[in-house]
Amino acid sequence: MTDSPSSHRSAIDDLNVSRLNLIVALDKVDSQQWSVEGHLEDRVFRITCKAGVDNLVPHGLDNDVSAALVNLYIAQGCPEDGAILTSATELLTMCGWSINGYYYAALNASLDRLSSAKYTISGGWRDHPNRRWTHASFHFIERLEFSTPDKEVRLFDTRTILKVTLAQDIRASVNSGYVKPLDTDFMVKLNRPRTRALYRILDAARYDINNPDVPLAFIERNVLEWGDQCKINTNGRAWQVVKTLAAPHDELIKRGYLREVTYSGRGKDQRIRYDFVQDYVPVDPVVSRRLSENGITTGVARKLMKDHDRAFLMECVDRFDWLVRTQALVVKKSRAAALMHLIAHPDDYPYPAAPKPATIAPIKPARAATSMPALIEVDPYAQYEGVSAETAAARLLTSLNVHYRKLLNAGDLDMVRQGVLDGTLQAADVAREAVEAVVQMKREAFVAALRSRLG
Q1: Which CA distances in Å does 14 have to 43, 172, 231?
Q2: How far is CA 105 from CA 6, 19, 157, in A?
Q3: Contact 188/95 with Cβ under 8 angstroms?
Q4: Following DSSP, what letter does each residue of 170-185 receive, concatenated?
Q5: Which is more confidently placed, 363 or 34?
Q6: Which superkingdom does the taxonomy of this entry point to (predicted)?
Q7: Sign of the C-alpha dihedral computed for residues 104, 105, 107 and 111 taken in this order
């Protein structure tokens, strides 16, 4: 679990998942299976999806959930067993959804579809390290465990803790490095699920298969084949693809992602061409959040990321926060203006001679005269002090998940979180006891004692 619902979003997406598009790019469907064929380089691939019993194939909002799960897996350090620990509220926030009963129910249904649907991919799954195409068969979510207020009804609420295990094939793809940047801040602000799904498909298609570090200026596809990639049931009618994607195209053009969309040819030979805006810069969500906390807008943040290295910007914000917190720097106008001046003139803002914060080896920033030391936290338990109970609880669950992921289930973690929120548990004390139990090889005893305290 991350520190707070909005923090530490990963700016990465898996290219196998996003290129093949496992989610139907429609807001509503009535089908329980689909099957498409396509071409990758000189080979034909085939993908089939079969929904679970009494369920529908993943679609619409499920795109947001699948992207958030990949992001969480990476943000949590790609755990070997693939198990992601989060809360329903955190996952809703990462999806860009409102925190209310409707979306708790939508998230529940989405996770159910992603757990029950089975994907079979013949010849289209990329084994990037070996530069070959392979087969894959999996459920997007291998295992789903969650706490609920009523075991019979199985509803999600603000207390729900989730343990989600991603498919082994997806984990292997991510760990192999077959990934690309994903501007999650941009995606969640798009109005319709259909537009968000198309954006994710396009953003994957614009990267060269054999060289995923190189973005393309444009892509061109047969309209019917593109409809298959978006999983639009066209029955061989190219106009159906044009009609279905018209509104998403308009929004992506207005938002500055696409320069234009053009069609050529007629009937089954009709083609679609996407020209991308060349100066579009993906926003790193972590950097964007740190900048926005100091009053810098998304537009200005995007320009800063275009002009400067990520490490340089993060070090600038670290330095600025430390100087303001210790009153070595007094902000006379706005925090945004002061931080912008520091970024432009880093040499004018040295750390005071004493005391200095702990440092690590300096990283040379891009386009900056000098490098700056990053701040590190000396006391591992200080992170629980001076923060809200919600944040302390989230940090504690993250800490426990490192060494106790196989011993504590979702229900246990729900109770731990609630104990911190109502004051019956002190997060720092529990974290300290947990670490001591690991050192003394008494993890089972710690878990038993903790369950006893929770009663």
Answers
A1: 21, 10, 18
A2: 20, 28, 9
A3: yes
A4: HHHHHHTT-EEE--HH
A5: 34
A6: Bacteria
A7: positive
Helix, strand, or coil (residue 409): coil
Please give the backbone phi and psi of residue 119, each rounded to the nearest 5 degrees, phi first.
-105, 135
Distance CA 329, CA 335 (A): 11
> What Å distances lie between residue 201 and 33, 231, 274, CA to CA?
20, 11, 12
The CA-based angle 239-244-246, given to 5 degrees, is 90
pTM beyond 0.90, yes or no: no
Look at residue 11 and tell me whether its pLDDT is greater than 80.
no
Spatial separation of the C-alpha atoms in residues 223 and 91, rounded to whole Å: 34
Helices and strands of the chain, counted as H and E runs: 17, 12
Residue type, 305: M
Domain range list for the chain: 12-276, 283-376, 383-454
**80: left (phi > 0), else alpha (psi -120 to 50), else beta?**
alpha
Instruction: Answer for the pair 149, 159: CB distance below 8 angstroms, yes or no.
Output: yes
The sign of the dihedral angle between the CA atoms of 199, 309, 291, 322 is positive
- pLDDT 10s digits, 350-404: 766 544 444 444 444 444 434 444 433 346 677 888 888 888 898 899 889 888 8
- Short-list 289, 422, 322, CA closest to 3: 289
pLDDT in tens, 174-221: 988 888 888 888 888 898 999 999 999 999 998 877 777 677 899 999
- DSSP one-letter string for 365-401: PTT-SS-BPPP--S-TTGGGTTS-HHHHHHHHHHHHH
- Length of the chain counted residue by residue: 455
Percent of the chain with pLDDT over 90: 42
Say if residues 95 and 64 touch (Cβ distance below 8 Å): yes
What is the chain's mean pLDDT, rounded? 84
Greatest Cα-to-Cα distance within the chain, rounded to the nearest angstrom? 74
Interhelix angle 443-454/410-422, rounded to 10 degrees, is 60
Residue 203 near residue 182 (C-beta atoms within 8 A): yes
Extract the tokens encoding 12.
């990465």
Burial 187-199 (b: 16+ CB within 10 A, else e): bbebeebbbbbbb
